[in-house]
Amino acid sequence: MNKISRFIRLELITMNKICLQIAAITVIAGIAGTSFFATAQEEVPAPNIEKGIAGEKAPEFIVEKWIQLPDGKEKLSIADYEGKALIMLFFQYTSAGSMEVAFPRLKELVDHYSGNDKVQFIAVQTAFSNLLDNTSQQLQPTADKFGLKIPFGHYTYTASYPGMGGLRGTYKSPHVPWFVVVGPDGEVKYNGTQISVEMSIENIDEMIK
Fold first, then answer.
1. Integer Cα distance of 153 and 126 in angstroms
2. Which structural domain range is residue 189 located in?
3. Is 20 exposed, middle or buried (0-12, 13-18, 19+ CB in 10 A)?
4. What residues does 190 pair with on adjacent strands?
5. pLDDT at 30
6. Full 3-state SS string of 88-123
7. 77 phi/psi in degrees, rounded to 5
8. Within 13 Å of residue 197, how many CA atoms lie on the same side as its CB?
9. Domain containing 163 — which CATH number?
10. Where do runs of H (alpha helix) occur along 96-189?
């Protein structure tokens, strides 16, 4: 099993559980008008966006708004993370997969590496649907819900306007949730819908030795 594939382990039990709870997703997530079916439709890749950039250099961030930045920072650059492992989660507030699966796993990783400055985390809402709900106003409530003090960003993706893809366009994420793991050398080591916490820790530890 190669290093990239080891970042992800299909969690069939977890996903089956989510599928069985389709009728209750709206209540569980606490998001009016959201269902698992709506999320599934969002996961259809957008035109002209390939599935990720694993193996390439991580491009610069294109983000409209940041919150919870380090003291003295008004924005973030990929250069800020040179020599460090960077784990990013692209999400939407109305995405059940983001809120019910991806964020809890991100929280586990953040807690595991608490105090280790060689491993950094970012969450960015790459809004491309339900734009009246997936706004920058949802950044702080999402951060607070999961007790995450990491930087959160927001960018609204507009497919009808060339060059307006933001972070989702440059990182070629076809849907949300979408994890990106950038190595200390600035190369995207893994990108995909989900990650295994256990396997991610193993590979991140190897990267930062």
1. 8
2. 5-207
3. exposed
4. 181
5. 28
6. EEEECCCCHHHHHHHHHHHHHHHHHCCCCCCEEEEE
7. -130, 150
8. 13
9. 3.40.30.10
10. 96-97, 103-112, 139-145, 166-171
Whole-angstrom distance, CA of residue 116 vs CA of residue 132: 37
- Tell me 46's DSSP state: P
Helices (H) and strands (E) in the chain, counts: 8, 6
For the stretch 145-172, pLDDT in tens is 999 999 999 998 876 555 567 888 899 9
pLDDT band at 143 (very low <50, low <70, confident <90, very high): very high
Residue 55 identity (one-letter amino acid): G
For residues 110 and 128, what is the distance between their CA atoms, to the nearest angstrom?
26
Average the pLDDT over 123-152 and give the result: 96
Residue carrying structure tokens 């492992």: 85
